[in-house]
Amino acid sequence: MSTSESDLLASVPDGLYIGGRWRPATGHTTFGVTDPATGEVVKEIADATVEDGVAALDAACDAYESWSRTPARTRAEILRRAFDLVRARKDDLALLMTIEMGKPLAESLGEVAYGGEFLRWFSEEAAHVQGRYGANPEGTGRMIVTQHPVGPCYLITPWNFPLAMATRKIAPALAAGCTMVVKPASQTPLTTLLLTRLLEDAGVPAGVVNVITTTASGPVSEAVIGDPRLRKLSFTGSTDVGRRLLAQAATGVLRTSMELGGNAPFVVFDDADLDKAVDGAIAAKFRNIGEACTAANRFIVQASVADEFARRVTERVTAFRTGRGTEEGVTIGPLIDARAVEKADELVRDAVDRGASIRVGGEKLDRAGTFYAATVLTDVAPGSRILRDEIFGPVVAIVRFTDEDDAVRIANDTEFGLVSYVYTRDLARGQRMIERLETGMMGLNVGVVSNPAAPFGGWKLSGLGREGGAEGIHEYLQTKYTLTPDPFS
Ligand code: NAD
C-alpha cells in the first residue's frame, strides 16, 4: 500500500456517528475492512451493537422536529455545500472506494461524479416541493393539499456503489426534512464514513444524519425497523434480504423503498448498429466489474448476427487488463469476496455442463485477492442457471433468438424487472419494445441508464419506489389533505 493510501485511510473516522459525535461501539468492538484485491485488512472500525442502533434512532428522533421545520432553502444550501465538498474531495473518495470495493480508479471517479450529483439534484428539488389549493367540486369547501416529511428513516446501502447508493437516499431524505440512521454494507463502510464527515462539514446539524457500521446487520436492523418511532425504510440490496425486511416493516406499516436485484436482458436485433451495440454491451456488462444491479445479465442476440456480435465482444474482452483498481490501465478489478467468485464460477460451470462454449476466461484467477477472469459464453442453453440468477461478475452469457416475439418472450422470462437494453435502428420496433419489456427502466441504443435526474427503480421482484428524478423526494414525503368551509358562505 502506498503512503498516500495509508494517510488517507488514517484520516477516515473509525467510529459510529451518533447525535453529531463520533464514538466507539458499545464494548469497543471493532471489525476489519478488507481490500479485495489483496485480501489485507486496511482499517479497523466500530462494530455497532443493537444498543448502538437504537441510540442512533434516538438521536434521529430527537433531531426530527427541528430539522423538519428548518426552511427548505436552508436544507438546500447545506446539500449544495455537501455537493461542493464531495467534488473537492473526489480523489480521496474515489481512492477509498477502489481500496475497499475494488473497482478501477477511473470508475470510482465516475461514481463520485454520479453520486455527488444526487446532492446537487436534491438541493435543487428541496425548495420545489409544492401543495395545491382549490374549491371542491360541490363548491362547499376548499381543499388544501400539503406535503410533509415522512419522519425518521432507516437507510441501508449495499457494497457495490458505496457512495452513490448512500447519496441517492441521504440527499432526498435531507431535502424532504427527514432525519435518518444510515447503515452501509460492512464490506465498504469507509466511503460512507468519509461522506459523513463531509456532511458534517457542510453543516448538517447534530442528530440529523447518524451512521452505524456493523457486522450484525440482522439483529441491529430488526431492532431499528421494529421501533415504532421509525417511519420509513429504504433498502438497496438483494431481493432475499429485501423480502425479509419488508416482512419486518409490515409490523409498523412503514413506508418502504426497495431497490432490489436485477436480471437485465440486453437485446440486439439484426438491424442494430453492431459497433454501437458492442460498445453498449461492454459498458452494460463490465462497468463495476459486472457487480451492478443494472448489469446486463442475458445477451439475447438475433441469430443472424450472434456469431459476429460474440466475435467482436470476445475481441474487446480479450484486451481487458485485470488487477488492483489503483494500477494504471486496469479495467477489471477483483470481485468483492470469495463467495462472489464461487458464485460466478458455479454459474459458468453449470452453463458449460449444459452445452455453452467458453470463448474467453471461464476461471478463477490464481493470485492474491478475489479475481474472476472476464468471460464470454456463447450458445447458453435455456434452463441454465446463469439466465435465471444475477451473476454479479464479469461474465457475458449469449443466447440466440429468431424474431421479435421470441426476443420479448426470452427477455421477460424472469421474475426480475429492473432494466432492459435494446439495440435496433427500427424506430417502431424500439417503441414496441418500450411497451412490451417488463422493466422499470430501459436503455434504447444506450448501455448505461443511471442518471440522478431520472426515476431509478424496478418492476416485479426488482423493487418498490423510485430513487432520483422528480419522484425521488416523494419517497420521503407524505401527503395531507385538509378541508375547510367555503369562506363565502
Ligand atoms: P445484501 O442484500 O446482502 O446487502 C445489502 C445491505 O443489507 C447491506 O448493507 C447488508 O449489510 C444489509 N443486510 C444483509 N443482511 C441483512 C439483514 N438480515 N437485515 C438487515 N440488513 C441486512 O446485498 P449486497 O450483496 O450488498 O448487494 C448486492 C445486491 O444489491 C444485488 O442483488 C444487487 O442487484 C442489489 N442492488 C440493487 C440496486 C438497485 O438499485 N436495484 C443497486 C445496487 C445493488
Commentary on this structure:
The chain is of the alpha/beta class and 489 residues long. The protein has two domains: 3-260 and 463-480, Aldehyde Dehydrogenase, Chain A, domain 1 (3-Layer(aba) Sandwich), CATH 3.40.605; 264-452, 3-Layer(aba) Sandwich (Aldehyde Dehydrogenase, Chain A, domain 2), CATH 3.40.309. Helices cover 39% and strands 21% of the residues. The chain has 14 helices and 22 strands. The chain has helices at 3-11, 50-69, 72-88, 90-101, 105-126, 164-176, 189-202, 217-225, 239-251, 274-286, 303-318, 338-353, 404-411, 427-436, and strands at residues 16-18, 21-23, 30-35, 40-46, 132-135, 141-149, 153-156, 180-183, 209-211, 232-236, 255-259, 264-268, 296-302, 357-360, 375-378, 395-401, 416-417, 419-423, 441-444, 459-460, 463-464, 477-485. Strand 3 and strand 4 (40-46) form a beta hairpin. Helix 3 crosses helix 7 (189-202) and helix 4 (90-101) crosses helix 5 (105-126). The protein is globular. It starts with a helix and ends with a strand. Nicotinamide-adenine-dinucleotide binds next to helix 8 and helix 9.
